[in-house]
Amino acid sequence: MKYLTLLKARENQAEAGAPPAELFEALGKLGAEAMAAGVLVDTGGIGPSALGAKVTLAGGEVTVTDGPFTEAKELVASYALYDVSSKEEVVEWTRRFLDVHNELWTGWEASAEILQVFGPEDFTPPQG
Question: Which segments within the chain are labelled E, that is strand?
């Protein structure tokens, strides 16, 4: 099963200061461990909404709105794509990721959303 995790940091993290160098080293080790276990498919950072756009279909019309999106109180900072055997397994990897931040970056706060990813094989064609 594939799962996408989205790391959402609080928008105003100035009081937490800059991330310490040890954080990047620890995250690199955790990522290498997940890769060696064969569960980490991809990771990356995500830019602020000011660099993005929102495409909406409503009332039969498609509209495009450039960022930033003022309703957002969180900044989606990064993502990770896992291929694991259960939701519990991806929850554990995500907990470990946040634990590293908690241990090494005092005052920084975030949450991670875990979403299951479906492919064409997960849908059956309609019976006609």
Answer: 2-10, 40-45, 53-58, 61-66, 74-83, 110-117
CATH code reported for the domain at 2-118? 3.30.70.1060
- The bridge status of strand 61-66 relative to strand 40-45 is unpaired
Q: Give, as one character, the DSSP assignment of residue 68.
A: P
Residue with tokens 């990721």: 97
CA atoms within 13 A on the CB side of 109: 9
Tell me the pLDDT band of 13, cut-offs 50, 70 and 90: low
Q: Tell me how far apart the alpha carbons of residues 68 and 48 are, in angstroms, rounded to a whole number.
A: 8
52-77 per-position pLDDT tens digit: 999 999 999 999 999 887 665 667 88
Is 111:8 a contact under the CB 8 Å cutoff? yes
φ, ψ of residue 115 in degrees (nearest 5): -125, 130
Whole-number Cα distances in Å, 50 to 47, 70, 72, 111, 115: 8, 9, 11, 21, 24
Tokens standing for residue 122:
């997960």
